[in-house]
Amino acid sequence: MTNYKEYIYAVYQEKSFSKAARKLYVSQPWLSATIKKAEEELGLPLFDRSTNPISLTEAGRYYIEKFEQISAIEAEMNEHFRLLRDVGRTELHIGSSMFFCTYVLPDLMADFRLRYPQVTLTFTEGGNKTLLEKLLSGHLDFLLEAERPTNSRVHSIPWASEEIVLAVPAGGPVNKKLDQYRYSFEEFLARTQTGDRRPPVPLEAFAKENFLLLKEGNDIHQRSLQLCKNAGFTPKVTLYLAQMMTAYYLVLEGQGIAFLRSSIPAHVIPTDQVVFYQLDDPLAVRSVYLSYTQRNTSPVQQHLIDFMKENIL
Fold first, then answer.
1. Half-sphere exposure of residue 165, counting CA atoms within 13 Å on the CB side?
2. Confidence of residue 89 (pLDDT cuts 50, 70, 90)
3. Is 256 exposed, middle or buried (0-12, 13-18, 19+ CB in 10 A)?
């Protein structure tokens, strides 16, 4: 029998010859004649044309049931062949923020490549929404970000826990009354080794300051607003930014204060132009997730998953 399956299935889905013809980019008379020819070859009608919309006959229901089973088997077979092809695959694509792509992933993935020197890695910077779309479409293998995707096709594992701190220009007058809470750059870096930890700052002390905030759509945007709300004020935002590192460097220039991830000082040049404050709010701690689709993973993808689990920060 000639391969009419796709045409028959389109009519079944659309419940209309005219709609199915538009979907298939063919003329309705041609599609009707093609389905009629298929029915003649089978010796049985597949569609009851007396109903509105058209419906399946008993033979049609059997045909669609078997077509869907065959399609599922073909999809499973194609996935199996994909996995066989991927045994020798040597490319991985990881999407993350500019901070991770620039400061964290290069060193971390250098260690990964010592184990798997045949692997080529590509980092893609972007916002969470755009990167998630690329992950779901197969253009990325992994997503590394603070927001945990809620899509049912995505599996996520916590990879790191990070603190949100407040960065303030060192010359700001507000610092004068906050000596007991304030960290210099060097003190902040050494606080875990020396045990010299300051108490969390009362965030309301900054209610009148100019804030540099990340744009809406970034996890820390909403956290920043809620942190201030929990402290009893609405922040006076003078500038919205796309990148956290831009906010950091503007703090150095005295343009305002900003909520930043606590890992930034470990990756930039020490300076006396900024001071840091820790915060006493559950929202000031968040997880970073490694996310990937729940389809069967290739061997090289599994190598990276295992490596990241071994190197959780």
1. 26
2. low
3. buried
pLDDT in tens, 198-217: 999 999 999 999 999 999 87
| Residue 295 confidence (pLDDT) | 67
Residues with Cβ < 8 Å from 12, sequence gap 6 or more? 47, 56, 60, 64
The angle formed by the CA atoms of residues 261, 267 and 273, to the nearest 5 degrees, is 80
- Distance, CA of 24 to chain centre: 34
Q: List, for residues 221-269, the tens digit of each pLDDT value.
A: 999 999 999 999 999 999 999 889 999 999 999 999 999 999 999 899 9
pLDDT-based confidence at 181, cuts 50/70/90?
very high
Query: Which residues are CB-contacts of 94 (< 8 A; sequence separation ≥ 6)?
Result: 105, 109, 121, 122, 123, 124, 140, 141, 142, 143, 144
Q: Name the CA dihedral angle for 109, 115, 119, 121, rounded to a multiple of 10 degrees.
A: 0
Q: Report if pTM > 0.70.
A: no
Task: Give the domains, in start order, of the chain with CATH numbers.
Answer: 5-84 (1.10.10.10), 91-160+287-310 (3.40.190.10), 162-286 (3.40.190.10)
Contact partners, residue 276, CB within 8 Å, separation at least 6:
165, 166, 167, 168, 182, 183, 185, 188, 262, 265
Is the pLDDT reported for residue 2 higher than 80?
A: no
Which two tokens mark 154? 């995505």
The tokens for 263 are 């890992």
- Does the pLDDT at position 197 exceed 90? no
Amino acid identity at 149: P
- Please tell me the distance from the alpha carbon of residue 163 to that of residue 277, in angstroms, as a whole number: 11
CB 168 within 8 A of CB 278: no
**Nearest-CA neighbor of 99 among 122, 126, 132?**
126
Closest C-alpha to 279, from 258, 252, 256: 258
Q: Are 164 and 220 in contact (CB under 8 A)?
A: yes
Contacts 24+ apart (CB under 8 A), 173-177: 174/205, 174/206, 174/209, 175/275, 177/205
